[in-house]
Specification:
four-stranded mixed beta sheet, Glutaredoxin, alpha+beta
């Protein structure tokens, strides 16, 4: 599973990265994590604000900090 955190490095982006790591541990999935901080690369995704969370090239959340259980659900869905 490929997980991307879209954001410029603000506190919410850093928190999202931590939550994504926790969710991957909870789901027991092997994931690669990538921080996308380049604004042009971020704008390539259909989001209007950061932070953004992309799982296997699908934007699952943007503009807010999701709950841990939400991220766990998205990761389980991506596994199926």
């Amino acid at each position: 599973m490929n997980v991307k955190i879209l954001g410029t490095g603000c506190p919410k982006c850093k928190r999202l990265e931590k939550l994504a790591h926790e969710a991957a541990e909870k789901v027991a999935v092997e994931a690669t994590f990538e921080k996308v901080t380049d604004i042009n690369a971020i704008m390539a995704y259909p989001i209007t604000s950061t932070p953004g969370l992309v799982i296997d090239e699908k934007v699952v959340c943007s503009g807010r900090l999701p709950r841990l259980d939400e991220i766990v659900g998205w990761m389980r869905s991506a596994q199926a």
